Amino acid sequence: MFPTLLAASIWHNQLWYLLPLVVSISLVYGATRHELMQPILANALHTALWILGFMAIIAAILIGVNWVAS
Amino acid sequence: MANEQSASATAATEVLHVDLRQPGVAAIWAWLWPGAGHIYQGRYAKGILYMVCILGTWFFGLGMGNGHVVYASFDWPDNFRWHYVLQLGVGLPAAPAIVQAVRVNNHREPLLVDFMAPPGPVDPERFDTLARWHGESHMFFELGTLYTVVAGLLNILAIYDAYAGPVIGHPDDDKRPPPDKNKEPAKT
In terms of residue numbers, what domain contains B89? Predict the structure, then answer.
């Protein structure tokens, strides 16, 4: 029961709409900094991981604050 | 850095010469259609990358909002669509909103039903057109707005790239020692 609910909550999570934006922003930002495709992709991967990591940290802080407050 | 005709780009192990052709013309093309400026310059791979990323984001957002998230209306304060200024960064794909706004302001029917047409006056006391669009699209109205705004902003980066060439970050920049603050600057 719980894994099914967990899978459903993950599948229907609105955060999935973040991924296309992260991919697009990372690739465009990488393309403004490099000319060749390989460095562009490397830069895009680095940027995407940075964005997702930053958001994960913010999410962890908010979850922690919520846990302390409740 | 860039000059009128070209830009030198230093990658990790090579020096690239990027022919910017006519940067001003390329910038205008880049604004009119994402990626077109780079294709004009012969930078096909980047042009296609920009086109796919920016237009993909744009049309995905436009579709999420059923074509209603992009409209030009600047009636202060109830219907001031400041988002459109940022959405206009994507160029021609945002232009139908201007045509629709002009038609509506001239008391004519908008084209293509109400695609990119302004919603008309906002009345907090009743269920107006804008409220109906929000009701039909739910969260996707805001998401579509976000996607199209981001697409417009991303194209501004692409326009700058078409005009001035890439901003190359050298991978060894972080390994270089910081400048010595005690050292006197060279006199000219």
Answer: 6-167
- Which of the residues A12, A14, A19, A21 would you substitute to probe the B interface, choosing the one with the greatest number of B C-beta atoms within 10 Å? A21
ipTM exceeding the 0.85 mark: no
Residue B103's pLDDT is 87
Residue B30 lies in a domain: yes
Identity of the residue in A24, A27, A39 whose CB atom sits nearest the CB atom of B11: A39
Task: Output b/e per residue, B5-41; b: 16+ Cβ within 10 A.
Answer: eebebebeeeeeebebbebeebbbbbbebbbbbbbbb
A59 is written with which tokens?
Answer: 């999410």
Residue B180 lies in a domain: no
pTM over 0.95: no
Contact yes or no for A31 and B18 at CB 8 A: no
Locate B163 and state its tokens.
């005009």
- Per the structure, the complete domain to which residue A57 belongs is given by 16-69
Number of domains in chain A: 1
